[in-house]
């Protein structure tokens, strides 16, 4: 039962989650992170750290879509192991609906 990142992360990318993960299984896209579900050991500590409440267990209703997206992009994006500054406009997008369709970028992050 891995944890997955949802669209609440898009354009927020606070990266608080990265610092607490014991197995470094976060991967960075241009404007969102994903978790590699095959590496996540289901400890759950990252869930409470996310200011955007973007991290959920894959057993939650509606999580299947995010599980597929996390798996796909964890293979394409670079590993991120340290917290970095959030985008300057992150607060502006926090809590906005439908962020994946509006803003998601498939490009890798810079980590
Ligand atoms: S803490 Fe939340 S918003 Fe920040 S990168 Fe992690 S999942 Fe995304
Ligand atoms: S649940 Fe634990 S292992 Fe999985 S991504 Fe979060 S901190 Fe890492």
UniProtKB/TrEMBL annotation:
Domain annotation 4Fe-4S ferredoxin-type: ranges: 1-30, 31-60
Cofactor: [4Fe-4S] cluster; [3Fe-4S] cluster
Keyword Cell cycle annotated: no
Gene3D superfamilies xrefs: 3.30.70.20
InterPro entries given in the database record: 4Fe4S_Fe-S-bd, 4Fe4S_Fe_S_CS, 7Fe_ferredoxin, Fd_C, FdxA, RnfB_subfamily
Keywords: 3Fe-4S, 4Fe-4S, Electron transport, Iron, Iron-sulfur, Metal-binding, Repeat, Transport
Pfam families named among the record's database cross-references: DUF3470, Fer4
Any one Gene Ontology molecular-function term assigned to this protein's record: electron transfer activity
Role summary: Ferredoxins are iron-sulfur proteins that transfer electrons in a wide variety of metabolic reactions.
PANTHER family per UniProt: FERREDOXIN (PTHR42859:SF2), OXIDOREDUCTASE (PTHR42859)
The protein's name in its UniProt record: Ferredoxin
Natural source organism: Planktothrix tepida PCC 9214
